[in-house]
Amino acid sequence: MAKLMKYAMVFAIVAWFPSMLLAEGASPAGPAGEVNLKAQPLYALGKGLALAGAGVGAGLATIGGGVGIGRIGGSMVESVARQPEASGQLFAPMIITAAMVEGGMLFAIVLCLIAMFTGL
Asked: What pLDDT score was predicted for residue 51?
């Protein structure tokens, strides 16, 4: 999992770097508002990589959240199998933890979608 996170970080940096080259107010729009991508080829590359990075980030957030909630549920089932009388005490913390993981996952997905549709 750490190797996957390292690759995700490298991909995010590579996808973000071309858009930073245009951060100084450079706009590819001409005087009439049309976009001239031949004048600034890095804009098209940066926009494409930003969209790809946002899509991959949303996918990784979804997969990570699903794996996390699955592990929480699996640990709960394993704990109840060992001590059935403790199921009442374990249920509430499990639900709270799963809700926090899901909240973090949804926050990451919303940030990726915002980055995708606003062109950050």
From this structure: 84
